[in-house]
Amino acid sequence: xxxxxxxxxxxxxxxxxxxxxxxxxxxxxxxxxxxxxxxxxxxxxxxxxxxxxxxxxxxxxxxxxxxxxxxxxxxxxxxxxxxxxxxxxxxxxxxxxxxxxxxxxxxxxxxxxxxxxxxxxxxxxxxxxxxxxxxxxxxxxxxxxxxxxxxxxxxxxxxxxxxxxxxxxxxxxxxxxxxxxxxxxxxxxxxxxxxxxxxxxxxxxxxxxxxxxxxxxxxxxxxxxxxxxxxxxxxxxxxxxxxxxxxxxxxxxxxxxxxxxxxxxxxxxxxxxxxxxxxxxxxxxxxxxxx
Length: 291
Ligand SMILES: NC(=O)c1ccc[n+]([C@@H]2O[C@H](COP(=O)([O-])OP(=O)(O)OC[C@H]3O[C@@H](n4cnc5c(N)ncnc54)[C@H](OP(=O)(O)O)[C@@H]3O)[C@@H](O)[C@H]2O)c1
Fold this sequence. Notes:
Largest sheet: 6 strands, parallel
CATH superfamily of the largest domain: NAD(P)-binding Rossmann-like Domain
Bound molecules: NADP nicotinamide-adenine-dinucleotide phosphate
Strand content: 15-25%
Helix content: 40-55%
Radius of gyration: 19 Å
Number of domains: 2
Number of helices: 10
Shape: globular
CATH class of the largest domain: Alpha Beta
Order of helices and strands: EHEHEHEHHHEHEHEEEEHEH
């Protein structure tokens, strides 16, 4: 079994990006910029935004966090996004989700310029992905594809089974790997809560991608011998032995599934770090292509 080390690959990607950013700065005196918009006091959102801004700083992207109180109005938020759509020093705009209930998330996402949509959530970006046009891919699925590619795992013609159909993971990874393109061209099955006996599908997977948000749901008897297993889940479970009182586990029963898999991602340290690396890559690409 080979561990798909997302932390290591993300560090390699960051080093590659830093070199390119330094080269650009030497030639043009300009750097990519990413603004993160944070609304309210959600502790998880604060942690995500701060790790994204730390990652920007590490590789020479100008990172800025704009924090607003939870009671900011939708129209005020729209005005702020509009101002960053026009701002020349910021090439990527990230609105940390979820937003407070009185703000329409779809409207906010649609207000971001498609040229700065480094999260890849804008309906135009999603549509372009589906029809195979060049676009920003959402960061988590882009990170999964990159991990498979960097470990030289064959995707073309393989049966990929995706558990979960969310707009941020399940649907985009299915569409990315389905494309008639290099590093894709898979046969894809997408499962969800109406699937019934999930193991009927999972046992057929050459590559199994679990993104359901259920702690250690995928057991060894659901997985084919030598399958490639990608665990996207991030679940907190009680752990009295840990000083925090909890630990983070994936959607896959790692201890047992890893005995059967040919390749498997750990949680943490698998898909998570790749997500941030892809955000940085998208921001650099926005800078190169559209500034
Ligand atoms: N590593 C990262 O960077 C990263 C990024 C994003 C998310 N995540 C993690 O990945 C997990 C999934 O996130 P998400 O945002 O995609 O989740 P989500 O929006 O909650 O969607 C979960 C999906 O799983 C399906 N599902 C839930 N229970 C199921 C079951 N028992 N059998 C079959 N399908 C089931 C749901 O089906 P229905 O559609 O029928 O309801 C839904 O499509 C979470 O643990 C999240 O924290 C990690």
